[in-house]
Amino acid sequence: MAYESIDKLQKVLAKEVFIHTKDPKKASGRALGTLVELITFYLLKTWGLDNQISIERGLAEYGNPDITHNVEYSMHPIIRDTNITIEKSTKSITSNVILKALSLISFNLDGFEKKNNQLLSNNILRNACTIAVSENSFLLCSIKSDFGDKLELYVYEQSKKPYAMFECKRVGVEEGMTKGPQTIEKAKQGAYVARTASSLQKIRSESGEMQGVIYKSNDTFIIKPYVTLMEEIILSSDKELLRKFILTIGVVSNHGNWIKKNSDGHLSFSEEFFQKELMVLAQSYDWLLFLTDKGLSDFIDKLLFNPSEEYQLLRDTFLSSYTEGKRKNQFTKVQINIEADHLLLKYFRENITTIESWFKVISPSSKSLSNLMEELNELKNKNWKNILK
């Protein structure tokens, strides 16, 4: 690892990038949180799930839709889609431009309300760009191909009902403390959302075994060991089981907050070394992933601090987003320089095996990251039109 720890790396960021801010340590911590979200997002894009993703949607609680919670990423079925071509000379690719092009091919927009978003403006790309919303769906757009003077756009309608959600949790460590003061609050927030999002609910038996219960529309229910029932639902074609099921995935980072050191001073992913906060998250999310210090450090070192000439633009984009007096951040999960987006996708595709090794699966402890990818693809490929009708 290029840096002894993420906390040491945070100090480097504070001194070299955020020295102009009122609180450099806090500013660098927020930037690290943004990078955790970016790494997660580009992993999902590399897995071929990018057009299933919505960013920071309000997720309604199961059985209690008056309460919603924003989550980093939610994965939604695609109801319908189409391709359109836009002249590249257009200064900005706005919702108006896209909707006008859709009207020329008789794409039905009845019941949709326009959103004032820009897919591309001054070379800044908006990921998961929503151009219109209806009562039960979202209309989004992405860039499919670049033909020099023209762009081919992919327009797709997502169901409002997601089949999976991702949340990223990172808490920094203040000077003189062993872990972040807000760690337990972060854990409780994530645990609450994970436990209330899906029709598959967790209950614990007196012996401590985690059971799962899921209700059908006639108020009958199934109860089984949690992981067993979760697997059955994911592999099922039964609309009664799938219609309100959401696979919940959490991503945490920074060992100092979540994992204790073992007797020889090294970090261990054995349950006996988990901090209480990590145990809370592990028993709440269906999947809990840990982005290792090495992974975050390698990403920052190889792409942002000491990149090869090929990836120099990533460093420039990152630094320009945090300079004093900067106008707009061009290196976030929502808005990113379009060339930086291309380079990140290239790097992730060429190094996907290494990048996947950055993540440790905390729960389910018997599964691997490839199992998660398989489960997400299984859900992605369901006949959702039939399930949700």
Summarize the structure.
This protein is an alpha+beta fold. The protein has helices at residues 6-16, 24-46, 95-104, 183-196, 226-235, 239-242, 255-258, 276-282, 293-305, 312-320, 338-350, 352-357, 369-380, 384-388, and strands spanning 53-61, 64-75, 78-87, 92-94, 113-114, 118-121, 124-126, 129-133, 137-146, 150-159, 164-170, 200-204, 210-215, 221-225, 247-253, 287-291, 335-337, 359-363.
Topology, pairings included?
Blueprint: H1 6-16, H2 24-46, E1 53-61, E2 64-75, E3 78-87, E4 92-94, H3 95-104, E5 113-114, E6 118-121, E7 124-126, E8 129-133, E9 137-146, E10 150-159, E11 164-170, H4 183-196, E12 200-204, E13 210-215, E14 221-225, H5 226-235, H6 239-242, E15 247-253, H7 255-258, H8 276-282, E16 287-291, H9 293-305, H10 312-320, E17 335-337, H11 338-350, H12 352-357, E18 359-363, H13 369-380, H14 384-388
Parallel strand pairs: 11-15, 15-16
Antiparallel strand pairs: 1-2, 2-11, 3-10, 4-6, 5-8, 6-7, 7-17, 8-9, 9-10, 12-13, 13-14, 16-18
Helix pairs in contact: 1-2, 2-11, 4-8
What descriptive keywords fit this protein?
389 residues; alpha+beta; six-stranded mixed beta sheet; five-stranded antiparallel beta sheet
Structure, explained:
The structure is a single chain. The protein is α+β, with helices and mostly antiparallel strands and 389 residues long. The chain has 2 domains: 1-77 and 162-198 and 246-389; 78-159, no CATH class. It has 14 helices and 18 strands. The strands form 4 sheets. Strands 1-2-11-15-16-18 form a 6-stranded mixed sheet, with helices on both faces. It has a 5-stranded antiparallel sheet with strand order 3-10-9-8-5, with helices on one face. The chain is globular, with a radius of gyration of 22 Å. It starts with 5 loop residues before the first helix and ends with a helix. The mean pLDDT is 89.
